[in-house]
Amino acid sequence: MRRMLSLFAGLWLTLTTGTLYAQTHQDATSRSLSPFFSVEGVPDGVEPFALESTKVSAHVNGVIADVTVTQRYRNGGSVPLHARYIFPASTRAAVHGLDMRVGDKRVRAKIREREAAKQEFEAAAKSGKTASLLEQTRPNVFSMALSNILPGDQVEVELRYSELLVPTDGVYELIYPTVVGPRYGASAEAPERAVPYLPPGDSPDSAFSMDVTLSTGVPLQDVRSGTHKLNIVSRDTTSARVSLARDGRYAGNRDFSLQYTLRGAQIESGLLLSQGAHENHFLLMLQPPARVADGDIPAREYVFVLDVSGSMRGFPLDTAKTLLENLVSALRPSDTFNVLLFSGDSRLMAERSLPATRANIDQALALISDEAGSGGTELEAALRRVNALPRSAGVSRSVIVLTDGYIAQERGAFAQIADNLQRTNVFAFGIGSSVNRYLIEGMARTGGGEPFIVTQPAEAQAAAERFRRYIQSPLLREVRVRFHGFDAYDVEPAAQPDLFAERPIVVFGKWRGAATGSIEVSGLGASTPFRSSLAVTNVKPRPEHDALAQLWARSRIARLSDFSFDEEDNRAQITQLGLDYSLLTPHTSFVAVLEQVRNPGGVGADAMVPVPLPLGCSEGGEAYASGAEPELLWLLAGALLCVLATRARRREVLS
């Protein structure tokens, strides 16, 4: 009976949307059955504005990656268009450049205060000029607006950013996100909530390419990707060129990840200097100390916070269950733990953390085994409940959050973490083919922990093992950075968190005067003090490190965005940093205007460029791949029958 109800529900749901589509778009020629693929305001029979290609070119020099994203659009219809497109980038990206080219005319965008940029764009659009506006809706999601694209126009937009690559356990990773996943609870100010998606599994007609040039200065080894097949051409032992290999699948619906190690898994420790006309910047990356014996590690408490909302249905939740089982099963007998499940509300395994006995572990696994995924994603309330849990004296608490991160109110979660920073370390597992990295990495950064990303089920066990190695012993506590004879200021971060993993200590800052003196890093290991000093005099400023200025500013902006809750002061500081360093921020935008009236009166149709859904996710944020319940399969069967009926109906309408 339940299967029959699911079948009829699928028929009803799809008939409703299919009939609406056929009635409101009778002359549409789109190949997609999704009602969101239509173009609002475009006369019948006009093709939507098309994204033809996305080309990503990255140059990695040492630990700095300079990335150029080139996107090509075309108006294949018969009327002028105004278009908007939503796309992601790295959470660590310092976006510092935008160019627009229409035909043979190229315009370099200018950085402006956000409202001023918007007004300039709207004035240009109204007067009939072709213009582009790049805004940040969140640190890893951007909105591109284009105006007065004439029939036949080919428009090319080039975005440039830099980011720092910080290794963990000797592994460097370059990430390029490709798709913005649906967000739960987004407001009207977050346009990615309204972005149209292609139907689950559909690939766009646009091309996607990725080329990376590695130049490390140290012999490379083990260049790989867990997300895409690669073509790797080695130039010599210290450099290589990497591109995507054709494997028959569309490459732009899942995050691109490139990982590599250096010979002997060493870390490029040292000091980088950049000397500018008005300011000088430095970057310190220092190798951490070795791990200690297990016997020297005190007892610890772990609270696992598992997202069981609707967007986790299927592969993300199944993967999270496997991951949680691996994590809980790896606890030591001296550890205590708890489990909290959350969606629209939350459910706690016990009011106080329990010893990691076999019976308690089995209880935790039974608690999560029947979860299928439903409801919203109220993470802030879940963290508030965790922070209210009673604590055991002398025990260090770590909170591990497992989620795809499809929420919009990230700062509320950051606030909960920041308010308990001295008492709790926070680690975040992002699960899904295209997770909300801003939330995952922001939680880890705010809590002094490490983000972990699992993009497919096969990665769960390895991720759990990496986490176990990461937290098995604190490498360094009470970390202090001191400057002797080196006039440093505006240092980021102002304080260092406890160091868990074998990843370098990273310090940005500015310096005055001569590059002399030394930088000292000290801290407490599990059993012995640690102290390391690096001479500044031996290091020379180099022009290839000029991106340090934008990277320093991006680091400060991230801290202000995550930690500062004085909105007025926050806005003023971030705006000034964006203007001074030509950076895209929540309060500064790039605007480019082709100073030629091409469409008198500025009259045109509005277009939303659809994007592919993240691999394994449906338009409502629910997974459609592996792990579906039998009832869901019957629901999909009903939907499939109605898709066929809708196709037949549309053929009748179009004929």
What is the element layout, followed by pairings?
Layout: H1 2-24, E1 50-61, E2 64-74, E3 81-88, E4 94-102, E5 105-108, E6 110-113, H2 114-127, E7 129-138, E8 141-149, E9 154-164, E10 171-176, E11 207-215, E12 220-224, E13 230-236, E14 239-244, E15 256-262, E16 270-275, E17 280-286, E18 300-307, H3 315-329, E19 336-342, E20 346-348, E21 354-355, H4 358-369, H5 379-387, E22 396-403, H6 410-418, E23 424-431, H7 437-446, E24 451-454, H8 460-471, E25 477-484, E26 487-492, E27 505-512, E28 518-524, E29 529-535, H9 548-563, H10 567-581, E30 588-597, E31 605-608, H11 630-654
Parallel strand pairs: 1-11, 3-31, 18-19, 18-22, 22-23, 23-24
Antiparallel strand pairs: 1-2, 2-9, 3-8, 4-5, 4-9, 6-30, 7-8, 7-30, 10-15, 11-14, 12-15, 13-14, 16-17, 17-27, 19-20, 19-21, 25-28, 26-27, 28-29
